Amino acid sequence: MGVPEDQWTSRSAVIDPEGKGARVYFQRVPEGKSVKNRVHLDIRTAPGAAGDERLQRLAEEVRRLSELAAEQVRVVDEMGEHWIVMRDPEGNEFCLT
Question: Mean pLDDT of all residues in the chain?
């Protein structure tokens, strides 16, 4: 997949071979541990969508999760990539991508 050999253990993902379930992506980060939670999830909410359709799907997922007591922390727009940082009821952050 084009990842240099010296970075093979820096990230990984597990996927549903049938393509129906969520992809779970693991990534090492440079920050030291600051709280008990050491897992940060990026949840791929709009696979295959782009532009306004992708943003609409993300907004729909924010609404759905907010009804389940999650809260939106911020919207990130970096170099044309958008994701939404959310927080679960226990304060653990995760991203909708």
Answer: 85
pLDDT tens track for 35-76: 666 677 888 888 888 889 999 999 999 999 999 999 999 999
Q: How many CA atoms does the CB half-sphere of 88 hold within 13 Å?
A: 11
Statement: 5-96 belongs to CATH 1.20.50: no
Nearest to 40 by CA among 79, 88, 89: 88
Q: Return phi, psi of residue 86, to 5°.
A: -120, 165
Q: In whole angstroms, what is the distance from residue 33 CA to residue 38 CA?
A: 7
> Which residue ranges make up each domain of the chain?
5-96
